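Handoff note, outgoing to incoming analyst
You'll be picking up this chain. Sequence as last confirmed:
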Amino acid sequence: MKIKNLSLIAAISACMLSPVLAHAGSYEQAVLDATASIDNAKKLNYEWRDSRKLLKKAEKLNKEGKTDKALNLLAEAKKQGEMAVVQAKLQSSVSGPYN
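Most recent structure output, in case you need it:
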């Protein structure tokens, strides 16, 4: 009887923890993706001012247990990195007043 109870408790625990563990994995991947995107913009000397601030705020929110909000900020940070790369490419073909 004890073995069945332990198995049941283990199964229930696994079901309850799986969304938390899945969220943790998606959060870590989102951090990596956003950081890589911002780093690409930095390589082109076009990193936007607030992109890394979003990463720090997302980290704080995640520590507070507000992972959904943190994931939204990470998506925004990644988007900013991608848009900065596009801007860098567009601006590279523009002639300035001294060209």
